[in-house]
Amino acid sequence: MQSGFFLEIVKLGLNNLRLHKLRATLTSLGIILGVAAVIVVVAVGEGNKRAALRDIAALGATNIIVRSSKPPESNSQNSARTMFVAYGLLRQDLRRLENSDAIANASHVVPLKAVGGEVTFEGARMVSQVFGTTPELMEVANLRLDANSRYLTPQDIESRAPVCVIASEVAKQFFALKDPIGQLIKVDTQAFRVVGVLQPVGLAGGAGSALVGRDLNKDIHIPITTAETQFGDTIMRRQSGSFSGEQVELSEIFIVAPTTESVVPLSLRVKRLLETGHPGLADVQVIVPWELLENAKKALLVWNVMLVIIAAISLLVGGIGIMNIMLASVTERTREIGIRRALGATRKHIVLQFLVETGSISTLGGVLGIVLGITVSVSLAPLAELCSKLSFFQGVFDGKLALEPQVTLWSVLVSFFVAASVGLIFGIYPAFVASRKDPIEALRHD
Fold it and tell me: Which residues fall within 8 angstroms of residue 400, CB to CB, at 6 or more apart?
């Protein structure tokens, strides 16, 4: 009997919503938009987080990058007509790192030497960064080769071979219609035979690229011994009657830690070793991608929390809208409440009837909000790609408008739970107001 009465109350509440479809829809609109906003905001934040973390992790979670850095004060040294600056990593720094017991657990110590600047092929030219390095860089930097390609070998290092491995953008610009393997390109005035092509690296324009300081897809790799022999350590430039020169023996050194837990302690030992020849590390920079990865995770977590809080405000507004409508409904249905009380309905039954209505509104709004949120999230990536091809957006975003939304299960579940809770919480007060009406006074209400 009691269960039948309960079902009758539920049917009565749902029937009242059917009689006022437009009002119910408008009431649930705040919940719908609130849930959709939470899902979309979290999806965009999660997508951006994964893209940033992927770019940073692509540098190698166990890598430590030591880079030559030109001191700011060196820009004003010497005379106005002639300026020469020697700075950065030295070969003796490399030997000290390779032979030190303090970093004996490092699995690789790989040097890079930047040389050249202008690359040409059959009249076509581009500005690219050429690096002399060793075969170990392929493993250390997570590089991948195209089919029928090879990387630098120990024999190339020993023989100082004039060979090179080019990145994807170099291959695309010079060899769009032909096989680059075996072709000769020139770096400044030196000729090199292409023996390999690297697959695209996902750092171009990303967080990882900002850390590296260049687009890795425009790099060219040659044997480090060839770089030392054919280019030397000094680069001289002549501009407007003045000369400027730089002497840099090594541009970067990649050091690989055995585990992610040992990366930070190993980086501290590396800094102490380098301070011997570089007081205060004025002309060298130590970059730890793992440390940056952890910091990025924390920063993005805080950002996501802020975005969720902002989106949740719309749920609160939706709850307030439900309360306002239900309070108006209580006044409108005062006589109905009086009749039901006169026929034997208790306060509990009245409360339950109104809670069924608010719960149904918020639950339906939550479901529709989930559908809307997922639909918008899934549509953002192709929409951003379409917009990036339009001339207007190319001028605004320089052709780099990209989104990678990732809908997360927790955002769907939490937003739905919060939406349902908001509806019930904000519906309790109107329900209690309705239940406390005096039956006699309610029956007299016009």
Answer: 205, 388
Cα distance between residue 110 and residue 94, in whole Å = 9
Asked if 402 contacts 384 with a C-beta cutoff of 8 angstroms, the reply is yes
By the 8 A CB rule, do 338 and 350 touch?
no
- DSSP strand E in 29-88: where? 63-68, 82-86
Q: Which residues pair with 223 in a beta bridge?
A: 133
Query: What is the distance, to the nearest Å, from the Cα of residue 427 to the centroid of all Cα atoms in its chain?
Result: 40
Round to the nearest angstrom and report the end-to-end CA distance of the chain: 33
d(CA 74, CA 54): 36
Tell me what pLDDT residue 215 has: 74
How many helices (H) and strands (E) in the chain?
15, 14
Looking at the structure, do residues 146 and 244 belong to the same domain, yes or no?
yes
Partner residues linked to 108 by β-bridges: 256
Q: Are residues 95 and 241 in the same domain?
A: yes
Tell whether 50 and 76 lie within a shared domain.
no
Q: Is residue 237 part of a domain?
A: yes
Of 238, 256, 274, the one marking the end of a domain is: 256
- Per the domain annotation, does 188 fall within a domain? yes
Is 2:337 a contact under the CB 8 Å cutoff? no
* 197 and 231 within one domain: yes
d(CA 200, CA 145): 9
Name the residue range of residue 377's domain.
2-56+295-444
Cβ within 8 Å of residue 87, ≥6 positions away: 68, 69, 70, 71, 74, 246, 247, 248, 283
Q: What is the pLDDT of residues 3-14, one digit of tens each?
A: 555 566 666 666
Note whether 311 and 37 are within 8 A (CB).
yes
What is the pTM (predicted TM-score) of this model?
A: 0.62
Report pLDDT digits (tens) over 165-215.
999 989 999 998 889 999 999 998 899 999 999 988 765 444 444 455 567
Q: What is the C-alpha to C-alpha distance for residues 42 and 413, in angstroms, rounded to an integer?
A: 12
Point out the domain boundary residue: 207, 235, 256. 256
**Dihedral of the alpha carbons of 87, 257, 128, 180, in degrees to the nearest 10:** 140
Any idea which residue has 């392929």 for tokens? 138
